[in-house]
Design goal:
Layout (H helix, E strand, L loop, with lengths): L3 E2 L3 E5 L2 E10 L3 H9 L1 H7 L3 E4 L6 E4 L3 E9 L3 E6 L3 E10 L3 E11 L5 H15 L5
Antiparallel strand pairs: 1-3, 2-3, 3-9, 4-5, 5-6, 6-7, 7-8, 8-9
C-alpha cells in the first residue's frame, strides 16, 4: 500500500486562506513524526528549517516562509509552526489502522503564495521519502 492524498479543501475569509488536507501514509505515527518535526525531515519534502526548537514556544525559521515560533507541540501527534510570511502550518498525525497513519494539514495564510497543487507535490515527496510500510 502506498500513501494517498485526499482531495484538499480550501476556504477564504477576506485575505485569509485556509487549506486542509488528509494524507494517508503506510507508516506508523512515530515513523512519520520526524518528517514534520525535525529540520532534516522537513527539508526532505517541504522546506529547510534553518531553526527549529522542538517545544511549545520554541523558535522556528522555515526557509522562504520566515521566522516565528512553535505554536503547538505534542510529540508524535501535533507540530504547528506560525511564521511571518507563511502563516500557521499545523501537522496533526492520527493512527490509521495497525501500521498506518493519517497526516492532517491545516495551513492558514494570507495572500496568494500557496496553492493546493504545491501542497500535493510536497505530499508526493513526503510519501516517497517515508518509504513503503515496514514488514
Amino acid at each position: 500500500m502506498s500513501g494517498s492524498i485526499a482531495q484538499g479543501t480550501s476556504q477564504t475569509h477576506g485575505n485569509m486562506h485556509i487549506l486542509h488536507f488528509v494524507v494517508r501514509l503506510p507508516r506508523r505515527m512515530e515513523d512519520v513524526w520526524p518528517a514534520v518535526a525535525t529540520p532534516e525531515g522537513l527539508a526532505a519534502w517541504f522546506t529547510p528549517a534553518d531553526v527549529l526548537e522542538p517545544r511549545l514556544g520554541g523558535a522556528v525559521t522555515l526557509r522562504g516562509l520566515g521566522s516565528g515560533q512553535v505554536t503547538a507541540w505534542d510529540v508524535d501527534r501535533v507540530a504547528e509552526y506560525t511564521v511571518a510570511d507563511g502563516g500557521r502550518i499545523r501537522f496533526h498525525l492520527e493512527r490509521a489502522g495497525e501500521n498506518g497513519s493519517a497526516l492532517r494539514l491545516t495551513h492558514e495564510f494570507q495572500g496568494e503564495t500557496e496553492t493546493e497543487q504545491r501542497w500535493r507535490s510536497r505530499f508526493e515527496r513526503l510519501i516517497e521519502n517515508i518509504g513503503p510500510p515496514r514488514p
